[in-house]
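Subgroup meeting minutes
Present: P.N., E.W., G.H.
Scribe: E.W.

1. P.N. recapped why we're keeping a running log of single-chain structure predictions: easier to compare across weeks, and new members can see raw inputs and outputs side by side.
2. G.H. added today's entry (308 aa).
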Amino acid sequence: MALSDRAQGYFFLITTMCIWGGFTLTARLNALWHINTWDIVALRFSLAFLILMPILLYRREASFLIKKEPFILAMIGGVIYCLLAYSAFHYAPTAHAAIFLNGCIPICTAIVAFILMKQAFDRHTWASLIIMITVLGIMSLLMYRESGIPFGAGDGLFFLSAIFWAIFTVLLRKFQLSAWQAMCGVAIWSAVIYVPIYVLFLPKNLSTPEPQHLLFQTIFHGIFVVIIATLTYVEAIKRLGAFKAGSITNLAPFLAAILAVPLLNEPLSIAMLIGLLGMAIGALQPWRWLRRQDALSQKLEQQKKQSS
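Output recorded in log:
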C-alpha cells in the first residue's frame, strides 16, 4: 500500500533529522578521532564531486555551473562555512554547536535578509531576538562564574559559521536556484577550488586516524550530509510545508547535544541547559504553532457551522 503524502513527508523529515543530528555528532567525532578540518573538508567535497559531476554531464545539466551564482554560493556556504564549522568542533562540544551555530542561524538570517534584501523584521523575529539575547546574556554570566571565560574560541567560530550560513541562505533565495542546482553547484565548485589548494599547500594528517574512521566520515559527510539530506529536506517541504519542515528539523542539533552526553561523555552544565532551552525556543518559535492550531480550529468550526 502506497504511503500518503503526509506519511511520506514525515518519513523524509525523520531522515533529514537523523542526518542533521548525525552531522553534529560526527563532526565532533572528527576531533576525537584526530581527523583535522583540512582533511574532512577535502574528503567531503571530493566524494560529492565524483558522484554529482558525472550525473550532471550524463543529464547535460552542467551549463548552469558557468554562472557566477553557484560559485558564490560554493565559496560562502561550502568552503568557508565548512572550514569554520568543522574547526569549531575541535574547540567546543556539541551543546555549544546547537546554541551558537544552529540556534543563531534563524536570527542571523533575518539580519542578513534585512541588510541585503531590505526585508523588515516581523514580530516573531523581534520576539526571537529578545529571547536569544536574554538567554545568551544569562548563559555567558553563568559560564563566567563557572570558568572565568564567558565564551570560547569554538563559540566564536560557531557564530561566524552561522553568519556565513545565513548569507548563503539569503543569497540562495535571491539567486532562485533549485535545490538540485544549489547542491551540485556548492559541492562541485567547492571541490574545484578547495581540493587543489588543499593538495598543494595545506597540512594533511591522513595517516594518523584509523582508516575505517576516515572512510565512515567521508561517506557520511560526502553522501548523506551533502546529497541525501538536501534531497529529503526538499521532499519534506513539498509535502509538509516550509514552516513545519523547518521547525521540526531545527530540533535535530538540540537533540544531538543531549545525545552527546551519554554517547560522547560530554558535560552538560546548567549554563548549557539554559542555553539549549532558550535558543531552541527562540529558533523554533513555538508560539507560532499555537497560533496555527487556533486558526485551524476556527476554520474547522466554521466548516461545521456551514455544513449544519
